[in-house]
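INFO batch 0412 | record 1 of 1 | parsing
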Amino acid sequence: MTWLVTGGAGYIGSHVVSNLQQAGLPVVVVDDLSTGIRGFVPEGVPFVKGSLLDTNLVEKTLREYSITGVIHIAGFKFAGISVEKPLHTYEQNVTAMMSLLAAMNTVGVKKIVFSSSSSVYGNAASGLVFEGHPFNPTSPYGESKVIGEWMLRNEGIAHDLVHTSLRYFNVVGSGDITLPDVSPCNLFSMVFAALEQGRVPVIFGDDYDTPDGTCIRDYIHVADLAASHVGAARRMDAGEPIEPAYNLGSGTGTSVSEIMTAIAVETGIDFTPEIGPRRQGDPDRVVASGEKAARDLGWAMTHSLGDMIRSAYEARKSR
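INFO prediction complete | emitting tokens
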């Protein structure tokens, strides 16, 4: 039961690899290192450097390591930049996934866990979001994730592919001080960078219909997220039924103001964020129900907001 993790040298992927190891499941990593870091792959884990666009390489890897399932995390993950680079986004997220699925079909690998995104719901979503909420992506990135889920559905019909898509919002924190979030575009990274540079972080709007006037979103710890990927892999290995998609959410959410206050406490840096204008299209509150994932995958929010911030900050300082 050997699992291939695409993008296993990245922030999320490396945590998934670590969790697979802890669960006693053999794992292999393929990553082109465009954003991943070779040092994030644990010693002793087979590593293949290359692009999923190279179908022959993927086929060779699946055969050489007798892969039985794939956890597909690799991709271009920057929603804002995807608007400026739609073709690049589709190449990395759609064409590359087509290549992966083609290789899996050729070799006969029939199980895949897909790292999808809450962006499939778009800004039209509000309140508590369940898996049946309509797709309404607002960026090429979100659209590419929808297409990825469609491809899995169709491959499931055509070739009996067993699949599930994990949809989640803001992934933060660190489960290992040596595995920091190195993306400059995530909320915690942007706030930390501003504080390090002596700038004041900005909250975009404080007049939303929420208790403190700032937007409410889901923030989940990367270690909890990784554990659910492993839970999905275990369920597939056991031949148990699995849903086509799961939301990984808190069901309650956290406001941007609460995030800022907690960051000041955990970092020891006293600051009062500036209030900027609203960003167009931002809904008041969007959080996901994680009921199905809790039922089937062992999903649970085991880390507090303080844990998330503290672990992210300590990992960042250790770089």
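INFO post-check: The domain at 173-218+250-287+294-317 is CATH 3.90.25.10 (UDP-galactose 4-epimerase; domain 1).
INFO record closed
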